[in-house]
């Protein structure tokens, strides 16, 4: 069984085990304190509820629970109208599931995955390379450490670019619209793009129509938006604003 697991890719989960451990530990501590101070019981049940919710979310995101995570990623490629010729970029690749899926879908392309890795996420460059080897696409993918706010590519040097739920997480960009602009900078004229993020979160991106007008003002030939938060495969419990209830895709042609 362990040999089989060693040959399976590790794409991680958007709900980290660290979150579950912390929620569980706080729940236990509060329950212990509640034997001394009854008021702590309220906090204990609150954290138990948090633990239960995120455990459910982790399960639903996993392959055993319906693979909602993978289905959300697939929405990005569904909106990428590209012929698959040339060089593609996956911005914020994590453990490279979208990078690898792209390489498989477009066998004539070379796909580069960039990520800052480290931090709270259970992702790394070495796991990306291992996953690519398991998937049989090592010769057509490569990985670089970089921030999405300053991509290590020349202007108009990429034929297609994708990103999935990354832009809002870029810490070194105060205005997340600048991350979109940087992604579009490296795409060549006529190149295609599909970016999924919390674009329905007004505190981050403002109104969608205003965002689209701003992007068109950068000289982009065409850009459209699809609300993906109500995709049929997403359970209602995961459509909360702090989960995937504000997601959508910007897609088009430069």
What does this structure look like?
- The chain is α/β, with parallel strands linked by helices.
- 39% of the residues lie in helices and 19% in strands.
- It is globular and about 65 Å long.
- It has 2 domains: 10-65; 68-253, Rossmann fold (3-Layer(aba) Sandwich), CATH 3.40.50.150.
- The longest helix is centred in the first third of the chain and has 22 residues, at 40-61.
- Helix 2 packs antiparallel against helix 3 (40-61).
- The relative contact order is 0.13.
- It is built from 9 helices and 7 strands, in the order H-H-H-H-E-H-E-H-E-E-H-E-H-H-E-E.
- It has helices spanning 2-6, 17-34, 40-61, 68-78, 97-105, 125-135, 177-185, 202-205, 208-216; strands at 86-91, 109-115, 141-145, 158-164, 187-197, 222-227, 248-253.
- A 7-stranded mixed beta sheet has the order 3-2-1-4-5-7-6, sandwiched between helices.
- Residues 1-5 have low confidence and may be disordered.
Key phrases:
seven-stranded mixed β-sheet; alpha/beta; 2 domains; 19% strand; 9 helices; globular; single chain; Rossmann fold; 7 strands; 254 residues
Question: How much strand?
Answer: 15-25%
- Structure summary, number of beta strands: 7
The number of distinct structural domains comes to 2
Mean of all residue-level pLDDT scores: 93
Largest sheet report: 7 strands, mixed
* Rough outline: globular
Rg (CA only): 20 Å
Major sheet strand order:
3-2-1-4-5-7-6
What would you give as the CATH superfamily of the largest domain?
Vaccinia Virus protein VP39
Helix content: 25-40%
Total of helices: 9
Question: What is the helix/strand order?
Answer: HHHHEHEHEEHEHHEE
Structural class: alpha/beta
The CA-CA distance between the termini, in Å, is 47 Å
Tell me the CATH architecture of the largest domain. Answer: 3-Layer(aba) Sandwich
């Amino acid at each position: 069984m362990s040999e089989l697991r060693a040959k399976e890719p590790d794409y991680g989960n958007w709900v980290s085990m660290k979150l579950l451990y912390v929620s569980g530990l706080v729940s236990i501590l509060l329950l212990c304190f509640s034997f001394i101070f009854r008021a702590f019981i309220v906090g204990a049940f609150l954290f138990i509820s948090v633990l239960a919710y995120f455990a459910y979310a982790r399960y639903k995101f996993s392959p055993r629970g319906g693979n909602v995570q993978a289905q959300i990623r697939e929405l990005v490629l569904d909106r990428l109208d590209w012929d698959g010729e040339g060089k593609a970029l996956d911005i914020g690749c994590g453990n490279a599931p979208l990078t690898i899926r792209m390489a498989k879908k477009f066998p004539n392309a070379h796909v580069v995955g960039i990520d800052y890795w480290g931090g709270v996420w259970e992702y790394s460059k070495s796991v990306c390379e291992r996953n690519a080897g398991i998937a049989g696409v090592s010769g057509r993918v490569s990985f670089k450490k970089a921030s999405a706010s300053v991509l290590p590519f020349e202007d108009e040097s990429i034929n297609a670019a994708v990103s999935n739920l990354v832009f809002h997480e870029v810490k070194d960009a105060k205005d997340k619209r600048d991350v979109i602009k940087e992604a579009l900078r490296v795409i060549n004229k006529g190149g295609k793009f599909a970016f999924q993020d919390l674009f329905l979160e007004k505190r981050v991106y403002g109104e969608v129509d205003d965002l689209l007008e701003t992007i068109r003002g950068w000289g982009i030939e065409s850009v459209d938006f699809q609300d993906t938060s109500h995709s049929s495969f997403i359970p209602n419990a995961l459509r909360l604003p702090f989960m995937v209830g504000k997601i959508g895709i910007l897609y088009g042609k430069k």
